[in-house]
Amino acid sequence: MLILSLTYTKSAEEADHQMQPHLAWVKEGYERGWFFASGRKVPRTGGLILAKGDRTEIETFVATDPFVIHGIAEYDITEVALTTVAPGFEGLKD
Q1: CB 35: neighbour CB atoms within 10 A?
Q2: Number of other CB atoms surrounding residue 7 within 10 Å
Q3: 59-94 burial string, b = 16+ CB within 10 Å, else e?
Q4: How much is the pTM?
């Protein structure tokens, strides 16, 4: 599993200007079968995406996020090898 942690490098107001293109990009990640959860950090300093798939492909996709292209956010990607999960979440294990 990959944890994609976004941190805004510009204001939330500037992020709002690219929010619709970013959300279209997020939707594409779900359509590709990579993303399975996403949302804003609280307080609103960025966001988080839980993903599963080939790290290189996902890193390449992250570079196409409008937030990255326009310098709105930076990503920190953490890879986790899940060994134990709650019932119903077995698909998350490596």
Answers
A1: 21
A2: 12
A3: eebbeebbbbeeebbebeeeeeeeeeeeeeeeeeee
A4: 0.93
pLDDT at 94 over 90: no
What amino acid is encoded at 3 in this protein? I
Domains and CATH numbers, the chain: 2-92 (3.30.70.1060)
Tens-place pLDDT, residues 49-89: 999 999 999 999 999 999 999 999 999 999 999 999 999 98
Residue 14 backbone class (left: φ over 0; alpha: ψ -120 to 50; beta: rest): alpha
- Degrees (nearest 5) of the Cα angle 71, 42, 47? 35
Q: Which residues contact 93 (CB under 8 A, 6 or more apart)?
A: 82, 83, 85
Q: Show Cβ contacts of residue 6 under 8 Å, excluding neighbours closer than 6 positions.
A: 41, 46, 47, 48, 49, 67, 73, 74, 75
Q: Are 36 and 52 in contact (CB under 8 A)?
A: yes
